[in-house]
Design goal:
The protein is mainly α. About 75% of the residues lie in helices and about 5% in strands. It has 7 helices and 3 strands; from the N terminus they run H-E-H-H-E-E-H-H-H-H. A 3-stranded antiparallel sheet has the order 1-3-2. Helix 5 runs antiparallel to helix 6. It comes from Microbacterium galbinum. InterPro entries: ArsR-like_HTH, Tscrpt_reg_PadR_N, WH-like_DNA-bd_sf, WH_DNA-bd_sf. Pfam families: PadR. This is PadR family transcriptional regulator.
Length: about 210
């Protein structure tokens, strides 16, 4: 079971801390929570807006409507509560990092499990294809097409697994306060470009 990102009542205080940094509209708050959890937690509008309405009722938040956009801002009373619960907020931040780490580990495991399932499905499909082939004449081009389809599925699985793993690792690292230097992204870009060129060369030699 995926661990809860926020314990009961913690999200309310965390929303105040986000608004203490700058006024936000609802979508901006949702996006901020998504970014700070490395994409592992995206609250629904049904989760955020009722809590914002409750904070407004308590006088801790105000809202102003600008056209179709509603902007929420923390009040002096809200800042006072935030200051009085500074230790609680520190605990929430620590718990949030732990929750994100656990969810990231679950994502990695789910990717690994998906890869195992896909390999099993490919093996089963290949077996069925071989059994079917015994009942009909085959040519060299038929064998090539079957092998190419199998390898194409494998290539898709490898690419998707790589993307999921790197995305999770990077977003989790940033969500936990880690720096992401530009040279790391540049190295990743260069490595992917080199891999793409190697694949292009590799398939061109088989024509």
């Amino acid at each position: 079971m995926t661990p809860a990102v926020f314990s009961h009542g913690d999200l309310r205080l965390y929303l105040l801390s986000l608004l203490a940094e700058s006024p936000q509209h609802g979508y901006g708050i949702i996006q901020a929570l998504t970014d700070r959890t490395g994409g592992t937690y995206t609250p629904s509008a049904g989760t955020i807006y009722p809590r914002l309405a409750k904070l407004e009722e308590e006088g801790l938040v105000t809202k102003t409507v600008d056209g179709r956009t509603t902007i929420y801002a923390i009040t002096d009373e809200g800042r006072a509560e935030l200051a009085s619960r500074e230790n609680d907020l520190a605990g929430i931040e620590s718990g949030l990092a732990d929750s994100v780490r656990l969810i990231a580990n679950e994502v990695r495991q789910s990717v690994q499990d998906a890869m195992k399932t896909l390999r099993a499905d490919l093996a089963s499909a290949a077996h069925d294809e071989r059994q079917s082939a015994k009942s009909r004449p085959r040519s060299a081009s038929d064998d090539t097409r079957v092998t190419s389809r199998e390898e194409m599925h494998r290539a898709d699985a490898v690419i998707n697994a790589f993307r999921a793993r790197i995305r999770t690792d990077l977003r989790t690292h940033v969500a936990q306060g880690g720096a992401l230097p530009a040279n790391v992204v540049t190295d990743l870009e260069n490595a992917l470009d080199a891999a793409a060129r190697a694949v292009t060369v590799g398939i061109s030699t088989t024509r």
